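Re: the 322-residue chain
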Amino acid sequence: MSYQKEKQIAIDAAISAAKLCEQVRAAIPPAIEKSDKSPVTVADYGSQAIICKAVSEAFPEDPIVGEEDAAQLREPAMAENLTKVTNYVKEILPDATSEQVLDWIDRGNGKVAPRFWTLDPIDGTKGFLRQDQYAVALALVEAGDVKVGVLACPAFKLDSGEVGALFVAVRGEGAEMMPLAGGELRPIKVVSVDDVTNMRFVESVEAAHGDQDRQNAVAQAVGFTSASVRMDSQAKYGAVACGMAALYMRLPSPKTPNYRENIWDHAAGAIVVEEAGGRVTDMYGIALNFSEAVKMMNNQGVIVSNGAIHDAVLEIFREKMP
């Protein structure tokens, strides 16, 4: 089956959403506090609205499982923020109304199904707020497998010196990237060698997002001699896919050992790395399961590599388990 339409819709939507996010970020907006106390900005809502509108119009039968919903924005006390969201969306979609924006956001309240999209409108909100890495992440899951993935990473630095990258993958067709500002998609590949002496590994900026002590111990045991590169968001997947890094680990924090990952935090990045020739599993070597629920209840931790070192990483991890 061809996924060219899905690929193009996802690319166009992610680019438009990233443009909105960068417009918001230029104004350094104050964070809005969600019920779970994590920061969310006008850009999260605007990004989700733009992407959900594009996907739902092209594929009206497809559910979208997104991170945000409009319940808080519908409260009278949030009227000023709703106006801000609507005005930013209107920069991309001039005829948009506040009621439409709310409805588009809530298109992301879909459920996991035999075919569905999963969306993180801003993956790495803290990175977004401090003018660092973040990603707009969109993936299509069908028949239990991720078929299309797009990552728009506005702060990702390319070899050319340009800032802003778009990573794209379709199952069975390889991975590609291009400058977010525009250009031609070009194929990308992971670094295929297993000598990691001069390679880097990436991990989250936030210590609470992993077990940095164990991650560094495993990396050193595999042979990495350089300190990790700490990056927010699924931009880390992009770094592995294009050969900037050879390993990304996200092991459960000792403070939350039973934590399970959300599908929208990994689906798009996983297919990009896999189609670039890399490998993605949980910390026990089990493939990530994006097809059953919002949380990957049957997986724990995430290990992403160039493939050549994956088995060695898993073996060393098992040796270093408490």
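The CA atoms of residues 132 and 155 lie 6 Å apart.
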